[in-house]
Sequence to fold (750 residues):
Amino acid sequence: MNSNLLILPAIVPFVFALVMLWLRGREGAARYLALLSGVIQSIVAALLFKLVLSEGTQTLEIGGWEAPFGITFVADLLSASLALVTSFVSLAIALYISVEKDEPITHPFTLPLLQLLLSSVYGAFLTGDLFNLFVWFEVMLITSFVLLSFGDAKQAIGGAIKYVLLNLVSSVLFLTAIGLLYGKTGTLNFAHIAARVGHLSNEPLLIGAATLLFCAFSIKAALFPVHFWLPASYHHTPAFVSATFGGLLTKVGVYAMIRTFTLVFPLQGTWLQTALWIISIATMLFGVLGAASQMNFRRILSFHIISQIGYMTLGLALWSPLALSAAVFYLLHHIIAKTNLFLFGGLAARLCGSDDLRKQGGLYSSHLPTAILFLIPALSLAGMPPLSGFFAKLLVLQAALEAHSLISVICMLLVGLATMYSMIKIWSEAFWKPAPADAVRPSNRTPSAGAYLGVAYLALFTVFIGVGAGYVFPICERIAGELLDQGCYIHAVLGER
Amino acid sequence: MIIASFIGLLYIAGFYLLLRRSLVRAAIGALLLGHAANLLIFVSGGLSAGAPIIREGEDSLISPYPDPLPQALVLTAIVIGLGVSAYLLALIHRTAEIAGGDDMDDLKEEE
Amino acid sequence: MSPFLLRTSVKFIAPIQLALALYFLLRGHNEPGGGFIGGLAAASAVLLYGLSFGIQEVESKLPVSWFSFALFGLSLAVFSAFISVFVNQPFFTGIWGPELYAPLVGKLKLGTVLLFDIGVFCLVMGFGVGLGFTFFAKEAER
Fold:
């Protein structure tokens, strides 16, 4: 029952962060440590995934204090697979920065903070306690705050302020919801709340708490009316930092939403379901429209994060086994593809000396392998078969058709086209068109083997999720089954009580 | 009742300040909101005199006692709040150095 | 306030504060107190001393930086949580050792929990003092 394997994904990067801090100033060592940490995380996460796959939901009662009194870590298949994907991202980023000369690290604390960030992401995925989730969220926020404000430019600070204030509001809403929930149910363990909420679902206080949680997680996931902090802040950081942010941070918000609104407050039939549906559609449309007017590589990607988040929450809002498994499939695919695209954004900026698409160009003729590798996540994001994004979009589409939601279908198709347009824009500007005549090029223009390995590693998974969809999808279906059957989770955590 | 309205007042004041253009006020607003949420959690454990500690020679809690868990939660939240507010103040300090003021409009992106 | 008055009184108050902080730390497991409170009390003692005698005065007497001090505390706390993993218990389980009678404090139970508290003490103290001194130094620059 109690397996310490559950806490290891969160603890490994934490310990590595400590070691890096002890070695402060020795950047070379930190890069190798990040690599080692990535490898160990992958091993641990893979073992955990295998265990959960074969033996079902695992729990760990920290300090031996029984659930629901102590803090419990729970790994069901959703948590375990997200942890696994996170470990892929971690290793890819470590590979990307493994060679010193091409990715200067501006501050000696960048790498340790990145490890702490990863630690908190794992923690958030694996915890089975609402307050503990809050704590992991805060660790994640504080580390990301600091990483964001390392930039010295005025815009970077402006972005950071928006990010900080909005996320503080989200934390306060979260905390308020925790207070209300505890006052009403007397517990904060997910399973225990779920078991107790079951027979008082029409209580106004609980509806209030659910709404507050909804708002808090919407901000973290960057849903429509509260999405503007994301494109304002992400692209000012070094590429590998924004790749981590873009790949993981908002996804933790989506995860929290999926967990809360399937297990604790099942969304079905409440007004929040309608609200989430409308918000998802708006998020998809506004995200993609925002991207259309941008000419900065990573800013475009930032806006696309928003529109893609809409697909995932739409899956949640449609609420059927197919829709939920589509949402989970989308989540897994998107973490990998988006991280990879951000890394390519960094690579292109490094090769062209600028982040601005107007100043980039000619990469197709000068760096053919980079161009071809870029096509994999880009086409996947746009939804070309047989890559992972195609199946992700197809599944959500199918779920929408099944629910006879014509508006969702039309919006999804439109957004898919617009995404295609964005990716083509990046392709034609950065890769296809000849380099602008007045462009100032950096002297060293060969990307290192490490950077190649990093992006290729993630591209491999994009291809795998696409080609191997027959293997991945049944897992997602199983996850959706677990999510819809609350009894199974409650039983795993609380036993026969 | 008094506590409830006080918490409400803190929320109102916090959100009002947060919507100001001045960054220092926004920071104070964020801190007030944090306090409001902490108080709310604290109250959710029940308000009764006495410490939730098992005395020497006894084997159970002496009633009336408040629920000890919210206190632990609040302590955690306060510690986190301490870290966040330290960061926020430092960030505003930096902003003032770079942008030369604490008005949000000084930070408009030039593009 | 006259710095003379402040300095003379701080010379008495700071050691008492430090002693009190240690007392809080050691009695913390079963009575009010603990590493966090103790760390804050200790940090305030050092901050007071630094305010009245100058930051350089304090920092020049110390072999390590406050950052390392806090880092040491954090590492110790994590290590104490790990001990239980080595004896195949859930993470963070308290492993208890013999019970001692410390002068002035009373019963003192040794165990990983105490180790954790000491870690938290160092972390909070290092963080508090480091934070305070950083802001003081900024202020002094003006």
About this structure: Residues 4-494 of chain A form one domain. Chain A has one domain: 4-494. Chain A has a mean pLDDT of 84.
